[in-house]
Amino acid sequence: MQRIALLTSLFFIGALAAPQQLPLDREGEATFGSDGAHFKFSKNIERVAVVGAGVSGLIATGALLDHNLTVRAFERAPHPGGNWYYTEQTPLPASYDDVAPSEADFKPSPPSSFPHSESIEGPEAVEREWRAHWLPRAVYAGLHNNNPIVPQHHSRVQAYVRAYASFKGLNSNDPLSSSLISYSTRVELAERTPRGWTLTLRKFVPSKDGQSANITCPFAKTIYQSIRNASSSDYRKDYITGRLPRKSHVVPEVAEYFEDGSSLLLKNGTVLHGIVRVILATGYTRTFPFLQHLHSDDAVASNQFPVVTDGSHVQNLYLDTFYIPDPTLAFTVQNIFIAGPFRLAEYQSTAAAKVWSGTARLPSQSTQWSEYHAAHEGRIPGKAFNVLGPDGTNDLVRKFVGWLSNEAVEFGSVWEVQRHFGSPAEWNPLGDQVPAADVSLWNAAEGEDGFGDY
User: Fold this and answer.
1) Buried b (16+ CB within 10 A) or exposed e, 293-313
2) Fewer CB within 10 Å of terminal CB in the chain, N or C?
3) What's this model's pTM, rounded to 2 decimal places?
4) Residue 45 and residue 4 in contact, taking contact as beta carbons nearer than 8 Å
């Protein structure tokens, strides 16, 4: 008897949108147990769904395949890359109204029967529905990463991600990838049943008349950069000013938007006129609209152990990965200020793959809760709840190394933790020099080291 697990990464036209339901289970009830020291699944997990084909989603899919699990990944965009996927298409204009976190991305609207299809007529309507479906990312033409050790233009980051996707056979132009990953496919709902997980999918299918045209963002003549609570000596102002184009002006916090839609009032009393576009750069809202039952806000019923409440953080995750009440659900790279997110994604994904394939064991749920509360003791719910920083990242990685190494010994297997990182006791994610592994990864983006072109 099989079980399905769900791994979600943070960080997911034509004329046809086709929702369908995909049951990923087998007969029997999903029950959990414990042998006292360890958590026990009632049956082995053999099939896993991965939501998203960004960096962490691709790493997760690769790790799961390496552990001989049957994997199916879903990505709402037409190509891999996640938040690093660049296109000249822009998101639809957003409303300033407050939206519950459970519906901040989209409001699930599954049809009453399956399979279901609907036609979208007219190029403007198609363009709008397509952008609403896949949500173009906030990557602009001149964006660089903020890594002081290996600064890179976004095109090189995207090239690396595409190269990694090709290396794993998951790229959108790989003729064999369709058996592993479905692009332009949004997970509308992921619902837990006694038998496993059932996914409701919405796929956008291109029309035979050709794809819709790109919407190009206009070039701004003047840019006003508003910084909240920033004095003239604030380090954030100096940092931001040094990265802005010359036509930019740093101004105080915005107090009010006027009804004419082209004027706004600053807190120092200044009124700015002729505003054409407003970009809210206030950070991300944590939202998993396909996991409605794990939200707790005004739009959905309260859950005793929600993953998301006000949208500022995620919670109730063991090692910031496994959902403690039901560890057939796992998340990767949900922290902020991570020193080495690619590496953290690899450890989290490897842990999930080993646990679900039966080559590593989770501690009992009581132990998971105890360690979770100890790790978050004194933290106030909010954006800082998931902050790691260099020391926190290092500590979390060491926990994975120690736990999975012990499990490898217990199961008589070999886990080569020194394959990329050297001795765990000596590993430092923010070393004075770029680790050799990082250099080889960036070289791989240019077609070296056997990755090939993407």
Assistant:
1) ebbbbeebeebeebbbbebbb
2) N
3) 0.80
4) yes
